[in-house]
Amino acid sequence: MPKTVADENGRTSRYLLQQRSVRRYSTAGTNPKLMKISKVWIDDGCISCSLCQDLAPDVFLVEDGEDCVVRPDAQAHFTNLEEDIHLAAADCPVDVIRVEHEEAAVS
Ligand code: SF4
User: Fold this and answer.
1) Neighbouring residues of 48: CB distance < 8 A, sequence distance ≥ 6
2) CA spacing 20 to 30 A to 30: which of 23, 36, 49, 87?
3) What is the position in ligand 1's atom list of the atom closest to the CA of 2?
4) Distances from the Cα of 63 to the Cα of 1, 23, 80, angstroms
5) Can you give the pTM of this predicted structure?
């Protein structure tokens, strides 16, 4: 059973998920310079709250009591789930999700 945690503002993962649709609307199309995701990884310090898995289960895996891992086949979903991955990284209560983007094309 995943732990229920709250961030420093008392927001639980359930609360953050409820805010997701609001922020999806409010952030849609506001960052045209956002580049494609090339790599996602988890730094040390995960507290196994499962928020990221709730947001993007095809990318993040949190098994019982274990630290989150990025699924081996996650890269196939980076484009489709780009927004969810960024939300997970932004909402991770201990800020351990790292996202790397492709280099900007020079034209
Ligand atoms: S990486 Fe962050 S959001 Fe994902 S389970 Fe760990 S602490 Fe929670």
Assistant:
1) 2, 3, 62, 65, 66, 67, 68
2) 49
3) 5
4) 9, 27, 23
5) 0.71
For ligand 1, say whether the CB of 47 is within 6 Å of any of its atoms: yes
CA of 19 to the centre of ligand 1 (A): 17
Instruction: Compute CA 55 distance to the chain's CA centroid, rounded to the nearest angstrom.
Output: 7
User: At 35, is the pLDDT very low, low, confident or very high (cuts 50, 70, 90)?
Assistant: confident
Buried b vs exposed e over 30-48: b needs ≥16 C-beta within 10 Å?
A: eeeeeeebeebebeeebbb
Best mutation site among 13, 49, 63, 70 for ligand 1 pocket (most ligand atoms within 8 Å of CB): 49
User: Where do the domains of the chain lie, and which CATH numbers do they carry?
Assistant: 13-101 (3.30.70.20)
Write the burial class of residue 75 (CB in 10 Å: 0-12 exposed, 13-18 middle, 19+ buried).
middle
Q: pLDDT band at 20, cuts 50/70/90? A: low
